[in-house]
């Protein structure tokens, strides 16, 4: 999403090393490699993207490499291959269109499939959550991560349904939610519940916080960061991170005694004020892009801030 704007923000130049932290189908990587004689390191935890990586590698021999793992660990992943600093980092947060379109991944409420939602091939599934968590915890998950006002009613309906049979399919969950959430034009009643479960299954907000901190450590002075998010929870984390790192809030953590607080030197400068939205043309061609927001900043020569600063981004 917003590929042209991301490339413009990162402004790749010959000889630079850039990170595509959310490789997916390789859209950003391909565009960056086409823009300059740079090198791109792709990162993805989804093992099914290897075919796309092979295609990008073949199109740009010697200039692309895919690392299997989480972008929140990008500093360690790159250190393992001898890279200590990079010139740009791109992140496209959340589930990819490729994953949504694969019914057997369980991300889509429009197609029936196993209630999975994992971006990798291991760990707890969405089915595990809806069948084992108690009603209060389910309500909290759906309210906090889905911003669903009817969270309590949805949780109650899930617990009642699973007493009759385990909830293992996406269509089952869509039908359960549809009984208690009123449909609105253009929005499936299960949208927010699916979002909440996906975020928890993949620890998406925690991964985003770790990724921002890792990018701050990796980026060289003048290095660029571009982050595309798709809902308010993600964008709030990115905005908080950049506001603080750009000096809008220069105090230390509110959890520390007042005497220990000291101004910190900004580690980033904004490349543009606020968030950019997709063009009308892109939004019309791709409805999934309508909610996208791009925030971008340039690294200063200041030291990276302490990792625990991001605890306040919750």
Features:
314 residues, alpha/beta, seven-stranded mixed beta sheet, 7 strands, 40% helix, globular
Describe the structure in your own words.
- There is one protein chain.
- This protein is α/β, with parallel strands linked by helices and 314 residues long.
- Helices cover 40% and strands 14% of the residues.
- It is built from 13 helices and seven strands.
- The chain has helices at 3-10, 27-35, 50-59, 74-80, 97-101, 126-132, 135-146, 151-162, 170-178, 191-201, 204-218, 232-245, 280-285, and strands at residues 17-20, 39-44, 64-68, 86-92, 219-229, 268-270, 293-299.
- It has a seven-stranded mixed β-sheet with strand order 3-2-1-4-5-7-6, sandwiched between helices.
- Helix 3 (50-59) links the parallel strand 2 and strand 3 (64-68).
- Helix 7 (135-146) packs across helix 8 (151-162).
- The longest helix is centred in the last third of the chain and has 15 residues, at 204-218.
- It is globular.
- The chain starts with a helix and ends in a 15-residue tail after the last strand.
- The relative contact order is 0.13.
- The mean pLDDT is 91.
């Amino acid at each position: 999403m917003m590929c042209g704007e991301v490339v413009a923000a990162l402004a790749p130049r010959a000889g630079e090393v850039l990170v595509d932290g959310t490789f997916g189908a390789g859209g950003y990587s391909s565009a960056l490699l086409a823009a300059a004689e740079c090198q791109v390191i792709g990162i993805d935890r989804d093992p099914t993207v290897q075919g796309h990586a092979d295609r990008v590698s073949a199109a740009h021999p010697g200039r692309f490499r895919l690392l299997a793992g989480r972008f929140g660990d990008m500093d360690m992943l790159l250190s393992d291959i001898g890279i200590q600093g990079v010139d740009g980092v791109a992140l496209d947060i959340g589930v990819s269109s490729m994953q949504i379109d694969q019914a057997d991944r369980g991300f889509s409420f429009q197609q029936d499939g196993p209630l999975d939602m994992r971006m990798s091939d291991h760990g707890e599934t969405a089915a595990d959550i809806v069948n084992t968590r108690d009603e209060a915890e389910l309500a909290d998950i759906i309210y906090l991560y889905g911003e669903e006002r009817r969270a309590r009613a949805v949780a109650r309906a899930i617990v009642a349904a699973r007493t009759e049979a385990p909830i293992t399919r996406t269509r089952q969950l869509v039908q359960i939610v549809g009984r208690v959430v009123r449909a609105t034009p253009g929005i499936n009643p299960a949208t927010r519940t699916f979002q909440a479960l996906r975020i928890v299954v993949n620890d998406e907000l925690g991964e985003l916080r770790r990724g921002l901190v890792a990018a701050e450590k990796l980026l060289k002075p003048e290095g660029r960061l571009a982050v595309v998010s798709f809902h308010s929870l993600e964008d709030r984390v990115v905005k908080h991170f950049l506001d603080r790192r750009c000096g809008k809030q220069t105090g230390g953590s509110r959890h520390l005694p007042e005497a220990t607080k000291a101004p910190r030197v900004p580690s980033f400068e904004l490349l543009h004020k606020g968030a950019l939205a997709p063009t009308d043309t892109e939004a019309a061609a791709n409805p999934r892009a309508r909610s996208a927001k791009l925030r971008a900043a340039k690294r200063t020569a200041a030291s990276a801030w302490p990792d625990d600063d991001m605890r306040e981004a919750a």
